[in-house]
Design brief:
CATH class of the largest domain in chain A: Alpha Beta
Protein name (chains A, C): Pyruvate dehydrogenase (Acetyl-transferring) E1 component subunit alpha
Number of helices of chain A: 13
CATH architecture of the largest domain in chain B: 3-Layer(aba) Sandwich
Low-confidence stretches of chain A: 1-24
Largest interface: A-C, 53 and 53 residues
Shape of chain A: globular
CATH superfamily of the largest domain in chain A: Thiamin diphosphate (ThDP)-binding fold, Pyr/PP domains
Keywords (chains A, C): Oxidoreductase, Pyruvate, Thiamine pyrophosphate
Radius of gyration of chain A: 23 Å
CATH class of the largest domain in chain B: Alpha Beta
CATH superfamily of the largest domain in chain B: Thiamin diphosphate (ThDP)-binding fold, Pyr/PP domains
Order of helices and strands of chain B: EHEHEHEHHEHEHEEEEHEEHEHEHH
Organism (chains A, C): Streptantibioticus rubrisoli
Bound molecules: thiamine diphosphate, magnesium ion
CATH topology of the largest domain in chain B: Rossmann fold
Radius of gyration of chain B: 19 Å
Mean pLDDT of chain A: 92
Largest sheet of chain B: 7 strands, mixed
Cofactor (chains A, C): thiamine diphosphate
Strand order of the largest sheet of chain B: 3-2-4-5-7-6-12
Shape of chain B: globular
Number of strands of chain A: 7
Largest sheet of chain A: 5 strands, parallel
Low-confidence stretches of chain B: none
Oligomer: heterotetramer
Order of helices and strands of chain A: HHHEHHHHEHEEEEHEHHHH
Number of helices of chain B: 12
InterPro entries (chains A, C): Alpha-ketoacid_DH_E1_comp, DH_E1, PdhA/BkdA, THDP-binding
Structural class of chain A: alpha/beta
Number of domains of chain A: 2
Mean pLDDT of chain B: 98
Number of strands of chain B: 14
Number of domains of chain B: 2
Chain lengths: ~375, ~325, ~375, ~325
């Protein structure tokens, strides 16, 4: 017996033990890649034309400022950018399912969700530019800081949800994480705590097929949405490139949570069209064919087709969205360029809320050290 | 104004938690077995009965989960006091403590506060099996964003816990488990000293002994023994390992000109290393001898039948005092 | 919405989502508490009278030296003891299912499994007496050291199994852990690694209903055996007080693993009849009724009834086992009392395999320090 | 005997891993993205292609799982070289490292050996986001049972990695990521110095600079700059943080009578604290000035645009040199 190739192994394990999968269609879909509305036995949605156009607008805006950020990184204005290209529907659909009083715990890629929460894109760019490590007020939009250590925020979300329940509030919490993150112990512990305390939290996994260079089979040999059943709460897989289905499923999940039914897992089946980040070279590990296949499932294109075919939006609308997104991109571009570098003394700020003698001492020493160079070029003191 | 009462450190912490639960509805107590059992050391005895399961919470057996959800609860406005059952079991939570709890206030440019207290019964001397006798405080004090304290008396146990809970920063609260049953006076109406202020607990002129938590008692005993030999040792209870009150210590060393630091934790990169380095820098021309350190060896905490040999005791402290005085 | 009482919450969650449970009887049983043999559609066993008597002997011996250890702790000869009382069938059944070349990763309570592996009970007592932190050679009986940090060993077992598979060996690995441990991130990560690499490891969870003072509902709101399906491998619950069922199920699971089918989870549903350890006071958190209910399901009594009723063993046999177990207890008692304290210099031994300058320095310093007291009473140097 | 080749530190580690994989079939390389991608820094580039998925293993995204299974593989007789993608992501594995990897040899009274190498690209200076620039070495050096090293040159990178893999103890191998692309000569047939031996890399008489990993280069630059001002600085590359070669350092300090320790890690309880404490004890009557330390502040690693201010640089080192010489 030897360890066999991943593909063989995972399909064998998977095929044999998918078990519950037969009970319902594996992927909830309301809008096909071709832009056709379909119905689903459990999930339905009925949106006004304006709402539909809003979703389109959100997705286009998101893609646009995300693309602008990639450009800004290339131009040296940002140190790094984690593009969400391809995941607009998963993010806009789920973000728009939240209520203002709900609380959102993102990873580092939820630029679209941030948009739906009213967070200014410029705020997101600060950490990628290297002027701060987060820096917006999470309580302003109930949108927590980006979290880089994979999986950590799943526990924060669970604790927050436990607190919301204690307060007697009917707000729900949503925790984002990736397919790779599903392997982290913290995510499993979050499942356990959420189940045991019946916390009103939705775990929203964007399975974009890749964790940097590793395909999802390196993380699980069964679909990720099945993970939650063994912790005692339901899971569902939704077409993550179908903004309508994502909205419907996330709404239902949040409703489930806020009505006292406890946690729920949503797996949005989507695809990371770009590289992992601007530092990554995806050609080293994945084939163009795969990307092409997913390009045909583009979340924005399918909604556009639907809007156009159904006469829900006209050329003027599309042109207007285009123009507005250009304006947004311009604002982002100019805003980033204008972002000042922080004052070096900021190193010593906000380490403690109630002060700390060592920080005071080091701050004073550094100020004295810096003062030596005052009025001189850097290093000119010697 | 209530009269001072005599109680153990264990009882003092229990009273402190009780008062905090009473006075602030946002205070929560959480951890493994803290409910009906009252914790394996009974520190939370009776609290769940009186404050309910909603405020005194038995958690799943998962330390990362405990601290991670405590962070979430703090984000929601609660003030969780999380218990780690024993020193050696804090490590599964180390990631949440170091990368999240310690850094979130700075990450949010001050917009978020995390008033989380992590209670850790620590140190040896109770004849326990592996992982139940360690002193990992340096591993927390090295990390910016955390405050680290340890009381040595019932009064400090009571007040430092109240202050830790009231503090808006995360505090790692190391409880000297082998001193849990030591008694002392607690005046719950006294105005306490600041949380991070060291205290001269015995005055002397020949040498300063600096310690915290369980070793303060050992140092006081050593000072008494030394007195019989005609030596006057000053004992400083540091009380806080992050920040360390170097001003108080410096004043003492400028007077006595010699310093021995004592802790149970391994000497190599223990808090004594920082104290030696910084006091030497501050008092370079005052010191008659190098700062000496007495502590654990660079070895895993040994099995119980060897801990008497491993742990700093009166003889080991006095041996170092002799060495320092011989310079 | 507020967090409701555990019982209400967990039964609601449980009832609603047990899902797969209907597909097969929830608990595999081959010998009823009344000592009657029953058949099971998936698991069967056919043992010789001698084998059956052997299992009985193992269980009696185990209970006896375990009880002796409790006594020795009361007498101050041990610092602590974690009694397995009530879990003899779970341990003997599973231990006897292993082959000599299989590898066992225990927690701190697997005294019965150790017995089946040929580990001398005296070896187990060293760490509880405080003369070492483990101290037997794991490779002698393929029985790893006791691991106290909950859940850690699940990953070691998985790594070991990955290695066994790499070696082309058909040995399997079994990892023991408790119901409480099922909450630890490490156990979930072990499930993930084992599934992804198809490692030949059996996860054997002794659900003894308690993690110190916490009932299993504090860890999960569905039966633990269901946890594995969402990681892509099967789980099964067995009557942990039925040595025949445990043996049959564990054998099958090990077979599953060694034949290249990958990991499997076995939940042995049993009960911790004693306190958590000799330091614990179980009366603070659990009711006598519960203990009484489980006493009626005693694993040894039911096998004895069966042996007697079927004429597979006579009074002489039972008396002989009793006498032998007394002899074992005596040997353990005397052996423990005779166990020497380690040499203080042993503090510096085996920290590194290849040496370390700091350890050498501290060893020398300590030796010099100790030498001061030579010939004098302790502390007499002053 | 092959001729010395010029290569980067990155390439040297790659070559070292390659040679180890070639010469010992029990050597495994494992971690996130180490396979097809060759790791985010390409340190394992081409290894999976040449040695197969069975020996160069992409793991699930779970650091505790990586180290925990590496321990199991080592128990089975393998010699795993596990990569942690960045310094800040080692903490989920900290429990397995501290409570299992470090202690199992002692727990088994020597019956079990765990030859596991943990590779950690560490330190700042690359303009990265949070958690990608930290220097947590003190958190490992404090723990008995681990060895901790960091190379500063391609030659050391090559040889120290080979020695770490051959070592029967767990070795935490800190790779100075901002020096990955620095070039130097590597003689793969030379007989290397012992893994834990410090090296005087520049001789001097007025003061000793001690550093390791990324700061060795900074110290050498500082020594050159100081030379122009007529000061002769000796530079010691410590190479190992556990154990630390205090003999070599002591010899240097007895000659120069002054010591400045430089590391990127926060000063408070950083390795410099231990060095200051111990060298002061060993060289008390030789020292003309207290041992000074240059390092990070007691602050979370700052955002990239502040790292130039945060990190020790030539000016900060020379400032401390001035201060030490002024005593
Ligand atoms: C604990 C931890 N380990 C490693 C990393 C490095 N890392 C950053 S993103 C990433 C992959 C994440 O994959 P996934 O969870 O699928 O999210 P995605 O990037 O695809 O959105 C890795 C390994 C990290 N940030 N945190
Ligand atoms: C990481 C860790 N946290 C806490 C403990 C303290 N502790 C020891 S046993 C135990 C309960 C274990 O329960 P379970 O897993 O059900 O095993 P059982 O004792 O019932 O056999 C706890 C909390 C520990 N040993 N390790
Ligand atoms: Mg992904
Ligand atoms: Mg249990």
């Amino acid at each position: 017996m030897s360890v066999k190739s991943t593909a063989a192994r995972s399909s064998r394990g998977g095929a044999k033990r998918r078990g519950g999968a037969g009970r319902k269609p594996e992927l909830v879909q309301l809008l096909t890649p071709e832009g056709e509305r379909v119905e689903h036995s459990e999930y339905s949605i009925d949106l006004t034309p304006e709402e539909l156009r809003g979703l389109y607008r959100d997705m286009v805006f998101t893609r646009r400022f995300d693309g602008e950020a990639v450009t800004l990184q290339r131009q040296g204005e940002l140190g790094l950018w984690a593009s969400l290209l391809g995941q607009e529907a998963a993010q806009i659909g789920s973000g728009r399912a939240t209520r203002p009083d709900d609380y959102v715990f993102p990873t580092y890629r939820e630029h679209g969700v941030a948009w739906t929460r009213g967070v200014d894109p410029l705020n997101l760019l600060g950490m990628f530019r290297g002027v701060n490590n987060g820096g917006w007020d999470p309580n302003q939009n109930n949108f927590h800081l980006y979290t880089i250590v994979i999986g950590s925020q799943a526990l924060h979300a669970t604790g927050y949800a436990m607190g919301a329940a204690k307060d007697g509030s009917d707000s729900a919490v949503i925790a984002y994480f990736g397919d790779g993150a599903s392997s982290q112990g913290d995510v499993a512990e979050a499942f356990t705590f959420a189940a045991v305390y019946n916390a009103p939290v939705v775990f929203f996994c964007q399975n974009n097929q890749w964790a940097i260079s590793e395909p999802t089979e390196r993380q699980s040999r069964v679909p990720i949405y099945q993970r939650s059943a063994g912790f005692g709460f339901p899971g569902v897989r939704v077409d993550g490139n179908d903004v309508l289905a994502v909205l419907a499923v996330t709404r239902a999940a949040l409703e489930h949570a806020r009505s006292g039914e406890g946690p729920m897992l949503v797996e949005a089946f989507t695809y990371r069209m770009g590289a992992h980040t601007t530092s990554d070279d995806a050609t080293r590990y994945r084939l163009d064919e795969e990307t092409a296949e997913w390009a045909a499932k583009d979340p924005i294109a399918r909604l556009k087709t639907y809007l156009a075919n159904e006469g829900l939006a006209d050329e003027a609308f599309f042109a207007e969205v285009e123009a507005e997104s250009d304006a947004l991109a311009k604002r982002v571009r100019e805003g980033v360029r204008a972002m000042p570098n922080p004052d070096p003394m900021a190193i010593f700020d906000n380490i403690y809320a109630d002060g700390h003698a060592l920080v005071d001492e080091e701050r004073a020493q550094f100020a004295a050290y810096q003062a030596q160079f005052e009025g001189s070029e850097e290093g000119a003191a010697r | 104004m209530t009269a001072p009462k005599s109680m153990t450190i264990a009882k003092a912490i229990n009273e402190s938690l009780r008062t905090s639960l009473e006075t602030d509805p946002k205070v929560l107590v959480m951890g493994e077995d803290v409910g009906k059992l009252g914790g394996v050391f009974r520190i939370t005895d009776g609290l769940q009965k009186d404050f309910g399961e909603d405020r005194v919470i038995d958690t799943p057996l998962a330390e990362s989960g405990i601290i991670g959800t405590a962070i979430g609860l703090a984000l929601r406005g609660y003030r969780p006091v999380a218990e780690i059952q024993f020193d050696g079991f804090v490590f599964p939570a180390y990631d949440q403590i170091v990368t999240q709890l310690a850094k979130m206030h700075a990450r949010a440019l001050g917009k978020v506060k995390l008033p989380v207290v992590i209670r850790i019964p620590y140190g040896g001397g109770i004849g326990a099996v592996e992982h139940h006798s360690e002193s990992p405080e340096a591993l927390f004090a090295h990390v910016a964003g955390l405050k680290v304290v340890s009381p040595a008396t019932p009064s400090d146990a009571y007040w430092m816990m109240r202050q830790a809970i009231e503090c808006d920063d995360p505090v790692i609260f190391f409880e000297p488990k082998r001193r849990y049953w030591d008694k002392g006076e607690v005046d719950t109406s006294a105005v306490p000293a600041p949380l991070h202020r060291a205290r001269v607990v015995r005055e002397g002129t020949d040498l300063t002994l600096a310690a915290y938590g369980p070793m303060v008692k050992t140092c006081l005993e050593a000072a008494s023994a030394a007195e019989e030999e005609g030596r006057s040792l000053e004992v400083v209870d540091l009380r806080s390992m992050s920040p360390i009150d170097f001003d108080t210590l410096q004043a003492s060393v400028e007077k006595t000109r010699r310093l021995v630091v004592v802790h149970e934790a391994p000497v190599f990169l223990g808090t004594g290393a920082e104290i030696a380095a910084r006091i030497t820098e501050r008092c370079f021309f005052h010191l008659e001898a190098p700062v000496l350190r007495v502590g654990g060896f660079h070895a895993p905490y040994p099995p119980a039948r060897l801990e008497e040999d491993y742990l700093p005791n009166l003889d080991r402290v006095l041996d170092s005092v002799d060495r320092a005085l011989a310079f």
